[in-house]
Amino acid sequence: MDYRLLGKSDIKVSTLGYGAGHIGGENMSDKEVDKLLNEIVDLGINFIDTARGYNLSEERIGKFLSHKRDKIVLSTKVGYGIEGYQDWSYDIIIKGIEKALQLMKTDYIDVVHLHSCNLDILKRGEVIEALKKLKQDGKIRLMAYSGENEDLNFAIESNSFDVIQTSVNIFDQNGINNYFGKIIDKNIGVIAKRPLGNAPWRFLEIPYGNYCEEYWNRMKKMNIDTKGMSWNELALRFTAYTYGVTTCIVGSTNINHIKENIENVNKGKLPEDIYNEIRAKFNYNQENWIGQV
Hints:
Blueprint: E1 3-5, E2 12-14, E3 16-19, H1 30-42, E4 47-49, H2 57-65, E5 73-78, H3 90-103, E6 109-115, H4 119-124, H5 126-136, E7 140-146, H6 149-157, E8 163-167, H7 174-178, H8 180-186, E9 189-193, H9 213-222, H10 231-240, E10 247-250, H11 255-265, H12 272-285
Parallel strand pairs: 3-4, 3-10, 4-5, 5-6, 6-7, 7-8, 8-9, 9-10
Antiparallel strand pairs: 1-2
């Protein structure tokens, strides 16, 4: 596994990270989650991304990975969902981190995101000030924003954030086109979410109402030749080696799928002609294809 510096920090993260939303539900037992998380870390994945909204995820990370705290980089997202506190207020950010620290059994969290709050909330400034206070107090190491489009642009230009998390995949290149120049100039770390684009190739017909319906439509219009590669390989190598991306996060409850993802990422960059063809197909076919939140 390759490791990259996250923005201007000295924190090194694995090129492939783990999106821990999948372990938040009750469809997996504690025993299954314990085994899965420890195998993931033992395979070399050190970046674990979760959120307050992922149900049991933070609690399980604390329960099963706290003994490996020095081997992992923890990322979470806050801003909502605490009884007695107004969503997207200064106080709920502070309280959200207090709860996350407790649940994940740690004294600090490496990366903390504002979880896709809108432009108006960002402009008010209090949530940003709350993160600054937490960073000053040593409870978080890096301030981050997770989001898309004009909200993301404001976050980048505010010069407040060390890291951003945004959708980067074959079918979602809006961020590459519009924001990566600024991100690279400012040396902001990039966590690429949805590197597989929600895998729309699973469906022969349009999956109405499915999370990947928009990406399915884009896939059909782009009509990409995978050059004999699996879609998973093509997609992961595209995202992981797009210039500016620090790590890409994939969630799964299947350790064999995770091992396959590691193998695909470790194959390295796509040949330049294939990468450029994918970029050109997006740009030629796109019709105001905005980033998907």
